[in-house]
Design brief:
The protein is built from nine helices and 14 strands. It has about 290 residues and is α+β, with helices and mostly antiparallel strands. It folds into two domains: about 100 residues, Gcn5-related N-acetyltransferase (GNAT) (Aminopeptidase); about 160 residues, Aminopeptidase. Strand 12, helix 8 and strand 13 form a beta-alpha-beta unit. The relative contact order is 0.15. Bound molecules: coenzyme A. Coenzyme A binds next to strand 4, helix 3 and helix 4.
């Protein structure tokens, strides 16, 4: 532990000090101010702070995504205190909390090129287990006009139709032995987090109208309140990838969404298909460690 630094659970009164050193973390700003109160209020989440003279100078959070899987996110260290291993002090306490909750594995996501963060997690025993690509694209009225640089939209030959829970087993088996399941290491996306997919997840998604059959493939896709269609999982083969993605774009338009976000594991043909259809792509690494 660094000199004079104490790690403790965050309090509502820490908000101001945390926002003061996190409002411009990245070029685009930061999201910590928007989520701090909600994270503090959640039963499945622990927010920690490192303090000097009881003033927060670092923070980090853990969330239980399943009874045995923790997700770590929101690691931030005040710029004046970086390079002293303080993120490691915070993550040690977050891992202890997650273990107490029953977690046996903890994971996190780092964008390609975030060297300080990659150094921090590799020094603290986390291993890179998968590389996922976040694909995003405006659709419908928000997309470039056909006469502009967006080109003419080609509707899919395939049509997404709601899948039933009886298809969960076949979809899961196909994915598990296929390229996508292997490259994903069995993980699927929920917002910005990843955990192990189960047949039960697919069956539950079917009941929630979020499990789709598309030709010989499947997807988990649901619209958000922000008018985004979020696709956290797909199963397809390279020869069907373009049509499956096209039909998801059609689904996004049909659901009134203004954009579509899609997670795919980094495989040459998934990324090529996404780019061909006009998705912007950002590469992210999933790291994991036993707890
Ligand atoms: C990533 C972060 C949490 C690491 O915290 P930390 O307590 O500084 O971590 P460490 O002390 O272990 O340093 C990690 C790396 O940061 C870099 N670093 C060292 N001194 C630094 C400084 N003064 N300023 C910036 N980065 C520095 C080094 O690459 C170091 O690796 P090294 O020890 O092998 O040289 C912190 O840099 C941060 O808040 N970054 C902005 C937010 C962010 O990217 N969060 C993670 C999102 S996934």
């Amino acid at each position: 532990m660094s000199d004079g630094v104490i790690v403790r659970p965050a309090l509502p009164s820490d908000r101001e000090a945390i926002v003061a050193f996190t409002h411009d973390t990245f070029e685009w700003g930061d999201y910590i101010a928007d989520v701090f109160d909600e994270w503090l209020a959640r039963d499945d989440t622990q927010v920690m702070v490192a303090v000097v003279d009881d003033v927060p100078i670092a923070t980090g959070s853990a969330r239980m995504l399943s009874p045995t899987e923790a997700w770590f996110h929101g690691a931030r260290v005040h710029p004046d205190y970086r390079g002293r291993g303080i993120a490691a002090d915070v993550s040690k306490d977050l891992r202890a909390w997650a273990r107490d909750q029953g977690a046996v594995v903890g994971r996190l996501l780092i964008e390609e090129g975030n060297t300080p963060s990659i150094r921090h997690v590799e020094k603290t025993g986390r291993r890179r287990v998968a590389t996922m690509v976040r694909c995003s694209k405006p659709v419908g009225d928000a997309s470039p006009s056909p006469s502009g640089n967006g080109g003419r939209r080609v509707p899919s030959k395939l049509r997404a139709r709601p899948a039933s829970s009886t298809e969960a087993q076949a979809a899961f088996a196909s994915w598990s032995v296929g390229e996508l399941g292997r490259a994903s290491r069995g993980l699927f996306g929920i917002g910005w987090a990843f955990r192990r997919l189960t047949i039960g997840d697919l069956a539950a998604a079917a009941r929630g109208s979020a499990f789709w059959e598309i030709g010989a493939g499947w997807a988990l896709a649901s619209p958000t309140q922000e008018a985004r269609l979020e696709v956290g999982w797909i199963e397809t083969r390279s020869e069907d990838a373009d049509d499956l993605l096209r039909s998801l774009i059609d689904l996004a338009i049909g659901s009134g969404s203004e954009s579509i976000i899609l997670w795919v594991p980094e495989i040459e043909w998934t990324v090529r298909a996404a780019r061909r259809l006009g998705f912007e792509t950002a590469k992210m690494h999933v790291y994991a460690s036993a707890l």
